[in-house]
Amino acid sequence: MRNQELARIFEEIGLMSEFLGDNPFRVRAYHQAARTLYDLDIPIEEVAARGKEALLALPGIGPDLAEKVLEFLATGRVGKHEELAARVPRGVLRVMEVPGVGPKTARLLYEALGVDSLEKLKEALDRGDLLRLKGFGAKKAERIREGLSLAQAAGKRRPLGAVLSLGRSLLEAIRQLPGVEGAELCGSARRYKDTVGDLDYLVASKEGERVVAGFVRLPQVKEVYAEGRERATVFLKNGLQVDLRVVPPESWGSGLQYLTGSKEHSIKLRTLAQEKGLKLSEYGVFRGEERLAGETEEGVYAALGLPYIPPPLREDQGEIEAALAGRLPKLLELSQIKGDLQVHSTYSDGQNTLEELWEAAKALGYQYLGLTDHSPAVRVAGGPSPEEALRRVEAIRRFNEAHGPPYLLAGAEVDIRPDGSLDYPDWVLRELDLVLISIHSQFRLPKADQTRRILRALENPYVHVLAHPTARLLGRRPSIEADWEAIFAKALEKGVAVEIDGYYDRMDLPDDLARLAYGMGLWISLSTDAHQVEHLRFMELAVGTAQRAWIGPERVLNVLSYQELLAWLKARRGP
Hints:
The strands form 4 sheets. Strands 11-12-13-14-15-16-17 form a 7-stranded parallel sheet. The chain is an alpha/beta fold. It contains 25 helices and 17 strands.
């Protein structure tokens, strides 16, 4: 919980500092520290308890920032943040976070038009005020309007991966409350939906009032919105809404089904129950006054004549019909994953060395990691030049010879240029074990041009995987527009896999497109897009998205053993 509080403080210091024209290197340091804290999977207070050296070992945390971490843990505040907050209106922070605005534009809008809130930004856009400012044309104003819509939507829902660790930490706190016999995180999070609006918890207990009383007094809670005998709604210190529902132990399974949803899935189940002369509620499956099931989810589904339907499938996308027909897919499981196929190292913008990544892969029981540092086009990533890329390949192969399994694949994430050509020449691509191609620029090309761009890139005979295909960033950048059926058909023709990138603000391919691609017969590649070892945990999100897409272990590259994967990659190597 405190990780996110402090990350937000550092993020705001960076934004306010840039708004006020501070040194860009100092601004970047605060944003890097915020990212480190958001990604950190253990409480920052546990790190601090090991001493200042442990804090300094975190990526992007230098002596000055370490002192601010300690200041926050001791007082709950950071003096620098309060100093800047006295100089920058609070609403300006929200304006700065609108895609297409940023601190410099926000300062111009504030000084010229008095824009210090999202409401005033919308009013200025509606009046056409932005068009009177130097450097603002109709296209830029429209981009800001689109960004405002994204920002307002993002305020209502958050990426699952951004709150999952917090959600599980709160779950453990709930499980420790007096009277709790069982507890689970339900709702969108249990279904691995890419974004969540709130967190929903179910508790099994015979002492509902006692559980609710303990829940609303948890230290993570900032405000109690509603409190009853069997339920409560609260807001956490980071603004996230949390709902608690308590049911008796004999209704645990039906409560899980009810609170997990989705609403559409549950409505169809209740309709099915009615057709059988039954009633389904959070308390069980009933025929008249007789309870037929409710203690387990499996029992609830069985009472309705259905096999158990895994939570990621519960979206009323044909899963109930498939269950009735005995055609539910056998879904991919996290335990089947043998490696990660997009990871970045210090050769580009990653935080960890080959040795550190190898150690992390070994700890996870992986057979391989695909090291896919950026090509040079992504300038901020500092990817190696073509000549340096070949030296990197040799270094990785020497490392493998010296260390043995798990093996590091000498790959690259190669930019697709606007004309569809690739950012490395073929004489580099042919030396790589794994070639991912992706888009990091020109996101607004017309649909036909964007489609042609990707189709041309797929023609390259050395390409293995189309990475984070839609290039979306949740809440910050919409998906590119392209003819995905045409692109998937070309990928299938060329033997190119498509990726589900599990990094929490990408989740790309989205589940609907991943289901389409898998249904067309494509191979799927899963990755975390890790830029530090802590990111490797995002494989769970990639697998969860694959499950939502009805994907089984067949035709998933990460299920292959190291030798099987090498054979697959070599079979697709160009001339």
